[in-house]
Design goal:
Length: about 375
């Protein structure tokens, strides 16, 4: 890490984040976006498109709903392992489900092994009943290929589950997934998981890679955070792990924890320096239409940075009791140029092919009607 911090204005930081997070120029395909960001967060809730699709539609040219899952698992047929370039699993430090490039697989092994020895209803070690059932499930999948919990006889209820009641089969399959003994091979139209052996999901050359050292995985994990956000705060241990790869950044007028970017991004950052007023429009995206961001978009994921840098305090309220919601169940923040100017809370009515706006709050002088129409067209709605 450079000993000297790079001091920039908030306007420069905003321009840099927009460019570095692929919001100024669409990339040609999902693979390019995934390689750039390190992962894309997956969420099953589908109110107005799923989270991962909403993230990628603003970044990938001609992106359609479901393209990420088709990239990961295949189209009409399931991709064989040797043709796969991505897979689903959880970020080690957070247990958030994401799509990773396959080169992430070796770095997940240590946490997978650790989970088999920890207590935990969702991802921890198997209970006595689950230990008895696990070999039966693995043998069936080995013989028949990808299977879902619905393909097995109901072995009764699992008494310990984070998300409420679950069958013993479903809970056991989920733990085997967390432990790395099974992976998601495909998903049904209704988003049901079909599990298979890792050898049928991860390419052989990846499975045969030597195990990374603890230091290597620590570096990978810290680097992943910056690849995802491009300008972010880091814990001391994270910064120390990748000190040779990062640049410290200070924002004029902001009292916040130090921020960091990747050294490889410094040329992009410096090219985003403030321009004379006469040339300022050159730094603005060619399209003036505001963007409707996903609730967990990388641009706004770090609430402290979003609040300090963008002067925008946003919380995803899908799990907030309705009486306490300020914006709505699935409100999408509005990025207009280099400002966050409000939110809209849309709901897709697929049966009537209409997109209904439940709530909206837009700063005066900014219009979002065209952005809403674009979202409706992308969803195949009016």
């Amino acid at each position: 890490m450079s000993a000297t911090a790079l001091t920039i204005t908030p306007a420069t930081a905003r321009r840099f984040m927009r460019r570095a997070l692929l919001l100024d120029a669409l990339v040609p395909d999902v693979a390019t976006a995934l390689a750039h960001h390190g992962y894309v967060q997956i969420d099953p809730i589908n109110v107005t498109g799923r989270m991962h699709d909403l993230i990628l539609r603003n970044r990938v040219r001609d992106y359609r709903e479901g393209d990420l899952m088709r990239h990961v698992h295949g189209h009409a047929e399931i991709l064989p392992a040797e043709r796969r370039t991505a897979f689903e699993h959880h970020i080690p430090s957070t247990n958030i489900l994401v799509a990773f490039p396959v080169d992430a697989w070796p770095h997940l092994q240590a946490i997978m092994r650790a989970r088999t020895k920890r207590h935990g209803a969702w991802s921890g070690k198997l209970t006595p009943k689950q230990k008895t059932l696990a070999p039966i499930l693995l043998a069936a999948i080995t013989k028949r290929g990808p299977m879902s919990s619905e393909d097995f006889e109901d072995h009764g209820r699992n008494h310990r589950s984070v998300w409420g009641k679950a069958t013993l089969v479903k809970a056991t399959l989920q733990k085997l997934f967390f432990h790395g003994e099974l992976l998601i091979a495909r998903r049904s139209e209704s988003n049901r998981r079909y599990y298979d052996l890792p050898s049928r999901v991860i390419p052989k050359h990846i499975l045969e890679l030597p195990a990374p050292t603890k230091i290597q995985t620590t570096r990978w994990d810290a680097l992943l955070k910056l690849r995802q956000r491009r300008l972010s705060s880091l814990k001391r241990a994270e910064a120390t792990a990748i000190t040779d790869l990062i640049q410290r950044v200070e924002i004029e007028g902001l009292k916040s924890a130090p921020l960091y970017c990747l050294r490889e991004d410094v040329p992009l950052l410096t090219s985003s320096f403030d321009l004379p007023t006469s040339k300022l429009q050159l730094s603005t995206p060619a399209t003036a239409q505001p963007l409707l961001l996903a609730p967990l978009d990388p641009l706004i994921y770090d609430r402290k940075v979003t609040s300090a840098l963008w002067e925008f305090d946003y919380t995803w309220e899908v799990y907030t009791p309705s009486a306490k919601r300020k914006r709505g169940y699935y409100a999408l923040p509005i990025l207009s140029g280099h400002e966050l100017v409000g939110h809209v809370d849309p709901k897709a009515h697929r049966e009537t092919k209409k997109l209904k706006i439940m709530r909206r709050s837009v700063r005066r002088g900014h219009k979002v009607a065209d952005a809403i129409r674009t979202l409706a067209r992308w969803l195949g709605l009016k």
